[in-house]
């Protein structure tokens, strides 16, 4: 038995309006999510004339400390303690999940995008001295506890290694290098309690904001940097942070989604200070009279060694291509047209 629609103009107009109303969410979503070619070929590899594989932010009026909102005292920041060099293969410098790009590289050593695509915590800004001024992070990447799809949800609650990143691509210093602010954070509840205890022991008080929801573990900036480096270079033993110098170097391979990467890391001094000045969470991060950070920055140069025959990457990204929305739009539009006939 087939159904037939009434043929009167008023009923037909009502049905058309209904079909267009049902299609509205898809139309809005499609408009706000422009179509992306998921398998566009990467830019050809090229070395950029930066001397170091990056431009020094301070030379362009920038900073190697981020800007964290709502700190007390105001104006504190967190160290940009890792740089993925512009001398890396260009595929790795592409901010994409495809063709062995940056997100797939992160997943090759145990990090992934935020829980269900939902950002938690305050944004931080960085000025890389490239002419773009202060910009919020491109994304926050978290330790995935062995599950690239849902593991970062566990990190959000229970703490772990994580980092924010920015791309140096402004007109004044377009290196393409990736700057990371890495740290190891505590579970939310424990962080709040610990900060209260530390402040009380020092007879200090100040209002706690969302930036204190996740406190950083003792020596957490340096350890967050070094544990990330250890994973990215597949070290068999934990890197000894206390033993690091500006001549330390590590190298190793990781794989994900059929792509294999070779990462070489060199530690350098001079970009950051061995200091607690201006550092967020400095009261709880510094230990045994030491400073909150040791002033070293890990420079990572990444090469793509092998890739699968198919160009599709196995990386998981929380923002999916818009093909499904386009199908909904086409279906609803077809229905609307058929009702007019």
Characterize the structure shown.
This protein has 341 residues and is an alpha+beta fold. Helices cover 26% and strands 17% of the residues. It has seven helices and ten strands. It has helices at residues 9-32, 102-108, 151-158, 188-201, 220-232, 282-285, 323-340; strands at residues 82-84, 111-113, 125-126, 135-136, 139-143, 160-167, 178-185, 249-256, 259-268, 297-306. The strands form two sheets. Strands 2-5-6-7-1-10-9-8 form an eight-stranded mixed β-sheet, with helices on both faces. Helix 1 packs antiparallel against helix 7 (323-340). The model is unreliable at 1-47, 189-199, 205-212 and 316-341 (pLDDT under 50).
Kindly summarize this structure in a few lines.
The chain has 341 residues and is of the alpha+beta class. It is built from seven helices and ten strands.
**What integer is the average pLDDT?**
77
Strand order of the largest sheet: 2-5-6-7-1-10-9-8
Q: What order do the helices and strands follow?
A: HEHEEEEHEEHHEEHEH
Task: Write down how many β-strands occur, each being a DSSP E stretch of 2 or more residues.
Answer: 10
Uncertain ranges = 1-47, 189-199, 205-212, 316-341
Question: What are the SSEs and their pairings?
Answer:
Layout (H helix, E strand, L loop, with lengths): L8 H24 L49 E3 L17 H7 L2 E3 L11 E2 L8 E2 L2 E5 L7 H8 L1 E8 L10 E8 L2 H14 L18 H13 L16 E8 L2 E10 L13 H4 L11 E10 L16 H18 L1
Parallel strand pairs: 1-10
Antiparallel strand pairs: 1-7, 2-5, 3-4, 5-6, 6-7, 8-9, 9-10
